[in-house]
Amino acid sequence: MEIASFQRQFPKGFVRDPVHFLALGFGAGCMSAAPGTFGTLVGVALYLPLKFLYWPWYLAIVVALFALGVWLCGRTAKDLGEGDPSCIVWDEIVGFLITLLGAPLGWMWVVLGFLLFRVFDVVKPWPIRWIDQKVRGGLGIMLDDVVAGLYGLAILQIIVYLL
């Protein structure tokens, strides 16, 4: 199978726009298969240098990335003419970073956080599915993944406490 078959097609020059490039997770969203998973992997890469920050600084960065994401995702969705295109993965990056807020250091926690976030993002338990269906624009794109990240955070912290 050719590599090109794994790439989603975009309007000419679309990915070169810095807003779209960021919303597409530095290009991870260009994958036609599992763009959300590839976007979450970008979240892992961004987490690695952030994990050593004092948690209020980490949280401040995540809040800033969320605010930026509302605008980035809204503009990219509008330019694509879609409500919540799967190629937009900035929301997965931020949601994953939320899951790992205050997580202990170590790859076990990164992998567990990755799995927890992806499960909640895919399954969409209440109110995630409701938000995904009812809240529009950049806020809606971001908010369902924020809640998935909060669910992942809660479960991860319960596991940390129990261990």
Note down, in words, how this protein is organized:
The chain is mainly α and 163 residues long. The protein has one domain. Helices cover 66% and strands 0% of the residues. The protein is built from 7 helices and no strands. α4 (90-99) runs parallel beside α7 (137-162) and α6 runs antiparallel to α7 (137-162). The radius of gyration is 15 Å and the shape is globular. Mean pLDDT is 93; it is low at 1-5.
Estimated helix fraction: 55-70%
**Number of helix segments?**
7
Shape: globular
* Number of structural units classed as domains: 1
Task: State the assembly state of the protein chains.
Answer: single chain
Q: What's the pLDDT, averaged over the residues? A: 93
Strand fraction band?
Answer: under 5%
Distance between the termini: 44 Å
Q: How does the helix and strand content classify structurally?
A: mainly alpha
pLDDT < 50 stretches: 1-5
Main sheet specs: none
What is the string of SSEs from the N terminus onward?
HHHHHHH
Strand element count: 0
Radius of gyration of CA atoms, rounded to a whole number: 15 Å
